[in-house]
Amino acid sequence: MDDDFAEIEAATKRSLRLGFDDMLRARREAEQTPPPPLSLIPQPDLLPGGIARFRCPLGCGWWHDENPGLESSRLILPVGFTRQDLSDALSLNAEASGLALRDRVERAIVQHYRERHPSA
Ligand SMILES: [Zn+2]
Q: Residue 13: in which H helix or E strand, if any?
């Protein structure tokens, strides 16, 4: 009987220890994970026509519209390009468009803050 109890007690301690180790590991991993990049950009409202409307994060009624579908895009491909070249060029293009859009929206919001919310 005592042996059974000791066995159960040991197993309980092992599982508690394991839980604590897991928590410590998760905490260490969380500390090593970089925080998401800081951005002023709020989630846009998606309007008909493919328009993304970015509203003032302070809710004053101001907004900035973007229409990503209307952006002109030019692919640069080598002579005799392969499917992989095309895929790479499309990925690069999408990334560049995304960065350009983000830059425009950030500039618009910063400009808006300067004009309307200088103390924010
Ligand atoms: Zn505002």
A: helix 2-32
By the 8 A CB rule, do 60 and 116 touch? Answer: yes
Q: Count Cβ atoms below 10 Å from residue 48 Cβ, excluding itself.
A: 5
| CA distance linking residue 12 with residue 20, whole number of Å | 12
Distance 40 CA to ligand 1 centre (A): 12
- Distance, CA 95 to ligand 1 centroid (Å)? 28
Which protein residues have a CB closer than 5 Å to ligand 1 (ion)? 56, 58, 60, 62, 116
Span 63-107, pLDDT tens digits: 999 998 777 777 888 899 999 999 998 888 888 888 889 999 999
**Read out DSSP for 96-117?**
HHHHHHHHHHHHHHHHHHHHH-
SS3 52: strand
Q: State the pTM of this model.
A: 0.60
